[in-house]
Automatic annotation (TrEMBL):
<keyword id="KW-0560">Oxidoreductase</keyword>
<dbReference type="GO" id="GO:0016491">
    <property type="term" value="F:oxidoreductase activity"/>
</dbReference>
<feature type="domain" description="Oxidoreductase FAD/NAD(P)-binding">
    <location>
        <begin position="68"/>
        <end position="123"/>
    </location>
</feature>
<dbReference type="Pfam" id="PF00175">
    <property type="entry name" value="NAD_binding_1"/>
</dbReference>
<protein>
    <recommendedName>
        <fullName>NAD(P)H-flavin reductase</fullName>
    </recommendedName>
</protein>
<dbReference type="InterPro" id="IPR039261">
    <property type="entry name" value="FNR_nucleotide-bd"/>
</dbReference>
<dbReference type="InterPro" id="IPR017938">
    <property type="entry name" value="Riboflavin_synthase-like_b-brl"/>
</dbReference>
<dbReference type="InterPro" id="IPR001433">
    <property type="entry name" value="OxRdtase_FAD/NAD-bd"/>
</dbReference>
<keyword id="KW-0274">FAD</keyword>
<keyword id="KW-0285">Flavoprotein</keyword>
Length: 128
């Protein structure tokens, strides 16, 4: 991984979280690029980013039910949308379908389950 190498990662932090940017990076021995990114972050403690370029956002229609679908670390931007939606309208009906190759790949499921206790209108559907 050199200075000119750029790869896309989705942000998990919300627009309200101004002091940091949270990324979910699926680093494993099977994903050498993600491992190189993690090694660089751990060694240099900072990275340069070029953001945003995506087309995922929370629309202003707060009254309609919301369905969020994610696979693996694609959950990162879904997390950002979910937390923003709950901040705007805590009573909105929201369903999340999150899939992974194995149950252990749903790495933030405990946080989602805690949110669903606080927000009974939030339905979590692990897919696997």
């Amino acid at each position: 991984m050199d200075e000119r190498d750029k790869r896309p990662f989705s942000m998990a932090s919300t627009p309200a979280e101004q002091e940091f940017i949270e990324l979910h990076i699926g680093a494993s021995e099977l994903n050498l690029y993600a491992m190189a990114v993690m090694d660089r972050i751990l060694k240099e403690r900072e990275i340069e980013v070029d953001i945003p370029h995506g087309e995922a956002w929370l629309r202003d229609d707060e009254d309609r039910p919301l369905i969020l679908i994610a696979g693996g670390t694609g959950f990162s931007y879904v997390r950002s949308i979910l937390l923003s939606a709950l901040a705007r309208n805590p009573d909105r009906d929201i369903a999340i379908y999150w899939g992974g190759r194995e149950a252990k790949h749903l790495y933030d499921l405990a946080e989602l389950e805690a949110l669903s206790i606080k927000h009974p209108n939030l339905r979590i559907e692990p897919v696997g």
